[in-house]
Amino acid sequence: MPVITTVEDLHRLYRRRAPRMFYDYCESGSWTEQTFRENKTDFQKIHLRQRVAVDMSNRSTKTEMIGQEVAMPVALAPVGMTGMQHADGEILAARAAEEFGVPFTLSTMSICSIEDVAQNTTKPFWFQLYVMKDEDFVRNIIQRAKDAGCSALVLTLDLQLLGQRHKDLKNGLSAPPKLTLPTMVNLATKWRWGMGMLGTRRRFFGNIVGHAKGVGDPASLMQWTAEQFDPQLDWSKIEKLRDMWGGKFILKGINDPEDAVMAQKLGADAIVVSNHGGRQLDGAMSSIRMLPSILDAVGDTTEVHLDSGIRSGQDILKAVAMGAKSTYIGRAFIYGLGAMGQQGVSSALQILRKELDMTMALCGERDVKALGRHNLIVPQGFEDPTAVI
Known about the structure:
TIM Barrel, two-stranded antiparallel sheet
């Protein structure tokens, strides 16, 4: 076993162990992947201010997200088909998050169902909703999330239509994978993954099979999911969903100040500055570059979180110092899960916290809540989305 000291170490191990189609599903963006790349590289344009002769003892990375205490300003983002990256993946990731003290968000398009995760964890998790055309299904899944004790609903707004992801189309992405000759050849080299999948009954979209009308086998499942994302989702429907849920309400996929203001008017407990990890509108601005203008638009009355591009504790620090209340990780925890299961997710979280803690100290801060723009050197024009830097 190699020595694991960075998220990138987990990434390399994950790449060796995961089937190609699921690795590509995680590690790709739409179209030319410009936004996917810039989500990461724009973080590198922000530099840190080193401070010395400061008492660095008794440091804390603890903070709150929508009133919930968290061990560091991080939540596990909803990732579709997590249970295809590793057998029972959503359950394992939820357990790791619970043990560490950060929120886990279950995707509508998860392999393990809401009920599976609830039965295998002891604390409430968050549920992410994709709005489908089938209104009965939407009402039912919201009620299922309530019955499972989910403590927040995360409504994703930027997937009314599925962005074209060339690698997924070429790989024939499906859950479970279709056994074409190239797929079988690749799976034959992924024996750890295969043994895990043979040992679990969870191989389909658990929130959909048995819950959506007419979905009883893989063929009907894939047809249903391809046709069901609601292109008519608008602010009036979002308001109805907020009322239907009646609890903590987070709107994810905000990447423009005007949309942020609309989300604020609807009374969202938090908004997530996100471009879906570069998997939807290719050519959209990176989340970290859009963060300042969105913060200016909503002020301090609505929590602003950020995802897309977080790969290190330094990225977390930069996002928080730029004004985000917290961050979400998707690919970073998937790397750990695909590499080493629950232990890998725990390792990813531990690495991120260590990097965050050490960087915070070398910037002269002892409390993550004290981070601010005074800790950063931001290039001229970075905060103006129309500027060239």
